[in-house]
Amino acid sequence: MRKIVGVIFALMALVILFSACGSETYADKLKKEKKAINRFIDAQGIKVLSEYPSDNVFAENEYYKDPDTGVYFRVVDPGNDEKPSKELKTDIYLRYSNIINLLTGDTVATNNQQGLYMTFKYGVPSTYTNSGTSTQLYSFLSQACVIPLDHDLGNNSKVSLIVPFSSGSTYQQASYIPFYYGTLSYRFINDKPIEEDK
């Protein structure tokens, strides 16, 4: 009986050893992400800026890399003169289109349907994630979506983002997937309804 128990424990130890050897570490996932982001940047001919343009004007394939988060973004349209306020906790409507998984190159989401948007309160970090919201739409909301607004963008502004998983949504962090957001559009609550956006 002791031999059978000993054999069972030896087999269990081997299974655990082999499964541990085959799993990816967090460092491996970071390396894979870095390669995927660099491959996308190279394939798209993106020039990474180390200094943010003071006038919010970006050339066609220029992206600024935020030094604190590693998020890359490009201002497509800086919007109008109406600015959001963290002190007033401005309500922001956010729409996205063409989110791409940079590990596979697959489009994981589009949001071209009228009436579909996410909201958050600018200056209230607890609203920047999908915690407590079960809809798939909010799987793509993160702190990274808010970062461009800190650069003096106005109402009706649009940006593109490259978001590492560590700065992304809870979905990204759980799946270790970097995303490319083709377009994020911002509207403030006192503007016309987001459904009118084309």
SSE arrangement:
Elements: H1 2-22, H2 26-44, E1 47-49, E2 62-65, E3 72-77, E4 91-101, E5 107-109, E6 118-121, E7 158-163, H3 170-175, E8 179-188
Parallel strand pairs: 1-2
Antiparallel strand pairs: 2-3, 3-7, 4-5, 4-6, 4-8, 7-8
CATH secondary-structure class: Alpha Beta
β-strand percent reads 15-25%
Q: Which overall shape is indicated by the principal axes computed on the Cα atoms?
A: globular
Q: Rg, please?
A: 21 Å
Largest sheet: 8 strands, mixed
For the record, the count of structural domains works out to 1
Helix content: 10-25%
Distance from first to last alpha carbon: 74 Å
Low-confidence stretches: 192-198
Helix and strand element order: HHEEEEEEEHE
The third-level CATH topology is: Chitinase A, domain 3
Structural class: alpha+beta
DSSP helical segment count: 3
Under the CATH scheme, which architecture would be assigned? Answer: Roll
Integer average pLDDT: 83
Q: Report the count of strand segments.
A: 8
